[in-house]
Amino acid sequence: MPPLVPGYPVTLMVEGRHCLVVGGGPVAARKAQGLAGAGALVTVVARRCCPEVRALADKAAASPFGRVTLEERPYRAGEASTYRLVVTATGDPEVDGAVAADAEAADVWVNSADDLAHCSFTLPSVHRDGPVSIAVSTAGTSPALAVWLRRRAASGLGTELGLLAALLEEARQAVRAEGRPTDSVDWDAVLSGPLPDLVAAGRIDEARALLGAAITQGVGAAASPEPTR
Hints:
The chain has three domains: 18-123, NAD(P)-binding Rossmann-like Domain (Rossmann fold, 3-Layer(aba) Sandwich); 124-157; 161-217, no CATH class. It contains eight helices and seven strands; from the N terminus they run E-H-E-H-E-E-H-E-E-E-H-H-H-H-H. The N and C termini lie far apart (50 Å). The protein has helices at residues 26-37, 51-61, 93-105, 143-156, 161-177, 187-192, 195-200, 204-217; strands at residues 18-22, 41-46, 68-72, 85-88, 109-112, 125-129, 132-136. By secondary structure, it is α/β, with parallel strands linked by helices. The strands form two sheets. Strands 3-2-1-4-5 form a five-stranded parallel beta sheet, with helices on both faces. Strands 6-7 form a two-stranded antiparallel sheet. Helix 1 (26-37) packs parallel to helix 2 and helix 5 (161-177) packs parallel to helix 8 (204-217).
């Protein structure tokens, strides 16, 4: 087996952009849900749909955003070219191959579920906490390993990562408001100290005080007592 060329990790900003999911089974439902959760305008095309897909469409119908639209029909040749991003998960190699070929011909990024040869991008296993995303990829070779690694990484990094990120963003904005570059603070020193444990323990006022000291010093956080467990 030739060595795999590693992929180029990115985070796509799909909010407000039209994306296509072809397929109506549970796998397609997960793909559509992930895209809709990132703000994409998702069209799901399938001959038949499972309850999970219908539930996504029903939820969107009651929402002012309308992020998921369901069209129960066969895929039309060439329609992949009208979208920014395409995922195909019908389980039918002929249909999935045709969708992938249309997307590739139009230079549209495409993921074909469980079919690495027809993918121009793969989907990592993702853990989310507010603005924080932990993504693990095996370049499509083993989705099960990616899930296992993601669970281990998420459990090892503790809780309240989203809140920690929000507090750090507050601190970065405060540094900018003073007319200073954000790299004037040693953020690595801040994060290597007690700040993450303070946030995980719910001691937010102390965490903010610690960040305030870091901003004032410009070289990392001042000493602080260890959080009570």
